[in-house]
Amino acid sequence: MTALLDGLRVLDLSLGPVAGMATMVLADFGADVIKVEPPGGDSLRSLANSPLWLRGKRSVELDLRVPGQRQHALRLAGAADVLVTTLTEGQAIGFDLQYERVCTENPSLIYCRISGFGPRGPYATYRGYEGLVAAKSGRMQAFAGLSGREGPSYAAVQVGMHACSQSALAGMLAALMGREASGRGQLVEASLLQAFMAYDLLGLVRTELSRRHPAAFADDPMLTAVRAPTLNYHPLPTADGRWLQMGNLLQHLFDNYLVAAGLSDVFADPRYENPSATWTDADREAFRDRMLLHMKGRTAAEWMETFVEHGGVAATEYRTTQEAMADPDLILNGHVVEQEHPRLGKVRQLGTLARLTETPGSPGFPSRTPGEDNAALGSLWVSPGLRADAGVTQPRSPRGPLAGITILEFATIIAAPLGVSVLADLGARVIKVEPIGGDPYRQLGLFGIMASKTNVSKESIGVDMKSPEGRAIVEALVRRADALVHNYRPGVPERLGIGYEQCRALRPGIVHVSMNGYGPLGPGANRPSTHPVPGAAVGGATLQAGGAHRWTDETVEGLRAIAWRLFRANEANPDPNTSVVVASATLLALLAQRRSGVGQQVFVDMLGANAFANADDFIQYEGKPDRPLPDADLLGLCATYRLYQAKEGWVFLALLTEGEFQRFCDLAGARELARDPRFTSTAARNEHDSELCEALTKVFSERPAGDWERLLAPRGIGCVRADGPVPGEFWLDDAHVRENGFVTEVRHARYGKHLRWGPFSTLHGTPAVPGPGALGGNHTSAILREIGYSETDLASLYSKGVVWSEEIQPLGSESNLRPGSS
Fold first, then answer.
1. Please, what's the b/e burial string for 272-293 (b: 16 or more CB within 10 A of its CB; e: otherwise)?
2. Which of 707, 426, 773, 368 is nearest to 580 (CA)?
3. Contacting residues for 685 by C-beta, under 8 A, at least 6 apart
4. Rounded-to-integer distance, Cα 58 and Cα 39, Å
5. Can you give the C-alpha Rg of the chain in angstroms?
6. Nearest Cα to 83, choosing from 73, 72, 93, 71?
7. SS3 751
8. Count of alpha carbons within 13 angstroms of residue 817, beta-carbon side
9. What one-character-per-residue DSSP string does 767-797 give?
10. Distances from the Cα of 296 to the Cα of 235, 253, 337, 793, angstroms
11. Residue 409, class by beta-carbon neighbours within 10 Å (0-12 exposed, 13-18 middle, 19+ buried)?
């Protein structure tokens, strides 16, 4: 079978795992990836997971400072379809490898540039380390109080790296699709800062609207900084000292938990006869205490056996990433694979990004040593044959590279809908098919604001799919679609008439994407899942909690405190972690469809996607270093990568090289530290880490946080203020964000003009045209007319309740100023 990307030549001029993970996926699906490394190899080969992101790539060692060797790189670029680089624009110009130069010789080249903070603005020259970007963008401030102390908390899971690698991948795949039509390449840009937008699910819009309508948002519970865990998402202790994470967002799932846990007598108590969201505060707190004590009566394994047997309870144990690699669902769905490595022996590691049934990927050959393929350098100057004809002059689409693609979305809440929004922003026409009353996510938060981000750039039609008339509407839509994305559990699509075989009969060649919690091939295939489940199950929440998953207490007050910390640590990132994978996987299948006309099923699951988000530790081999863990106070990983309290405010310091430490000491007026025998080398600093922490604490106490950033960051030293605006305020107010175009103004049917997050990657040749969030069913009539329904038909369908449209009430109208209005 020919691989999906067979014939595609990728030149990887990057350092480290961000771009490395993106090009690894391209290699897994058949691309010929040539990694150009400096003398001695990529400096980040020392990372424990480097065998993962180096797999499937040939290695050429070149010193770009030497003109003759730089010419080799230029010749490789001339034969490539895709070039990926982490060079800054200035560095690329210095090496004569800038986009303008390279694309002149190779007009069909997709040139992808990845940075920390984006190409322009006051932070463009800052060090692009994950911790710095997380601190500057407010992510660490959003965790304030998590450890019980004042100030921001270290953001432990490398979600920026994950989302950036996937956003760069999506940008490259979309650009390749655009090239299929026009024959021309283009510049694609992605950054860690841009990628962090994926994790601000409502802050930007809520901040702007609450400033404009303060009375309307005065009682918004989402503005409360510290909240107790919801009963639906509660972490719960067990008899053996382990903790379980509940994920029963919807009422029927919470009811399932009550039955399975032996708490169903609550249904007979008049205090609890209504849905849990309406219980009084006193009754809710009394029941919280009862849950905490009740769950201590059995071990974690005993409870999980009960919940799995029930089948309708979303729950999991808190585990480390290394423990998760033994999970049968991850193994059976291909997310854990074994490979014999010539230097490391048996290596267990991440499998492919998603399961494409007709054009599957396969983990590439083991990582090569630096320069192992230099002998074949001459043969690499010739294109392998996929490169588009540079003479093609078809005009580019003004609506993004996916213009002309139609995608149907049958999905709710966050993970799948946000992933499809990425495709909508890239120019695809997305029609969200919603049940009568709409996606349940629309009912959360004031004024439907929670669902704003997950519905951007889409159209929405409300249909009763269980009625014969509704099914006929859906069938008509399927006949016009290129792809369909759903997040139902197995068997449900078939009952609704949108299973793969049913859709293929209506539309041969359709791409049919299934996204659910556990994947279809393991024991959890039919189990429900929401974001806290993969957060705890794959190790991300465990890491962020700083060891709290192993704490226990005999008092209710102590258990409440631990549960609160676990709840705060298990934030919503597993949903966006999955969303960016949904986008990339769908694009892989759409590219196969465009290149060869093949349609297929695609399977994405939350466990596997979050394994990718924890890729820094999702690998096992003899001698592998342990995953660096944050301290219990959640300050950071070590003295040179952590938070410090300044004379006023907090900073995050990131010094990763010997040169950076020496220059920091010079600029900070702490030259004595550079001369201290305890700190004169990386090994010495590691040995005396606590002493260096103490010394640096004294240094930072001498100036305010803002002064430290102004002194150090523009000079290439990783130090930024960490207790500035929270994410919503940052995205709304920061001048750097505006200068890079990371937010854009739209007009919403309810909110009026407001700013929304921009696309997660920037395609300069086929720029996106981001649209507002769609209200539920507000395109129902227009879509029905388009597929042939008359005005009489529309009136009949509405009167029978077959179709539905949400009422539009502009925010600011008297009826819409009442908290709780939707």
1. beeebeebeeeebeebbeebbe
2. 426
3. 638, 639, 640, 661, 678, 679, 692
4. 15
5. 26
6. 73
7. coil
8. 7
9. -----PBPPTTTTHHHHHHHTT--HHHHHHH
10. 12, 21, 36, 58
11. buried
Token pair listed for 640: 């040179």
Cα distance between residue 96 and residue 67, in whole Å: 10
Which class for 69: exposed (0-12), middle (13-18), buried (19 or more C-beta within 10 A)?
A: middle
Which has the closest alpha carbon to 351: 362, 365, 366, 343? 362
Residues 802 and 469: their CA atoms lie apart, in Å, by: 7
Average pLDDT over every residue of 219-232: 73
What CA–CA distance (Å, rounded) separates 413 from 249? 10
Structural domains in the chain, CATH included, are 226-327+527-569 (3.30.1540.10)
Tokens representing 284? 């809710």
d(CA 105, CA 492): 52
- Whether the Cβ atoms of residue 16 and residue 85 lie closer than 8 Å to each other: no
Sign of the C-alpha dihedral, residues 661, 666, 672, 675?
Answer: positive
3-state secondary structure 226-238: CCCCCCCCCEEEC
Non-local CB neighbours of 291 within 8 Å, separated by 6+ positions: 231, 234, 236, 261, 263
pTM of the model: 0.96
Question: How buried is 141 (Cβ within 10 angstroms: 0-12 exposed, 13-18 middle, 19+ buried)?
Answer: buried
Q: Please name the residue that has the structure tokens 């929401």.
A: 530
DSSP state of 369: P
Q: Phi, psi at residue 262, to the nearest 5°?
A: 80, 30
Q: Say if residues 351 and 365 touch (Cβ distance below 8 Å).
A: no
For β-strands 483-486 and 336-341, DSSP reports them as unpaired
In 3D space, the residue among 810, 743, 800 whose CA is nearest the CA of residue 456 turns out to be: 743
Q: Which two tokens stand for residue 460?
A: 């929405």
Beta sheet of 636-638, edge-to-edge order: 636-638, 641-645, 650-654, 718-721
- Cα distances (angstroms) measured from residue 626 to each of 46, 344, 392, 609, 623: 13, 16, 51, 22, 9
In whole angstroms, what is the distance from residue 99 CA to residue 93 CA?
Answer: 9
Token pair listed for 64: 């770009």
d(Cα 638, Cα 650) in Å, to the nearest integer?
16
Parallel/antiparallel/unpaired status of strands 243-246 and 752-757: unpaired
Q: Which amino acid is at 679?
A: F
- Determine the distance from the C-alpha atom of residue 558 to the mean position of all C-alpha atoms in its chain, rounded to a whole number: 33
What is the chain's length? 822
Long-range pairs of 63-70 with CB within 8 A, sequence gap ≥ 24: 63/38, 63/39, 64/38, 64/95, 64/97, 65/95, 70/95, 70/96, 70/97
Predicted local confidence at residue 218, as pLDDT:
85
Instruction: Determine the Cα–Cα distance for residues 583 and 761; give it in Å rounded to an integer.
Output: 12
> Closest Cα to residue 18, out of 761, 664, 641?
761
User: Would you state the structure tokens that stand for residue 328, as one six-digit string?
Assistant: 């049968």
At residue 819, does pLDDT exceed 60? Answer: no
CB 202 within 8 A of CB 448: no
Structure token pair of residue 717: 């030293």
- pLDDT tens digits, one per residue of 683-719: 999 999 999 999 999 999 999 999 999 999 999 999 9
Q: Which amino acid is present at 373?
A: D
Q: Are 815 and 807 in contact (CB under 8 A)?
A: no
Nearest by Cα to 537 from 336, 335, 330, 237: 330
Q: Render pLDDT for 595-650 as a digit per residue (tens, 0 to 9).
A: 999 999 999 999 999 999 999 999 999 999 999 999 999 999 999 999 999 999 99
What percentage of the chain reaches a pLDDT higher than 90?
A: 91
Short-list 17, 321, 318, CA closest to 157: 321
* Nearest one of 789, 727, 778, 783 to 757, comparing CA atoms: 727
Two tokens at 514? Answer: 């299934």
How far is it, in rounded angstroms, from Cα 742 to Cα 732?
10
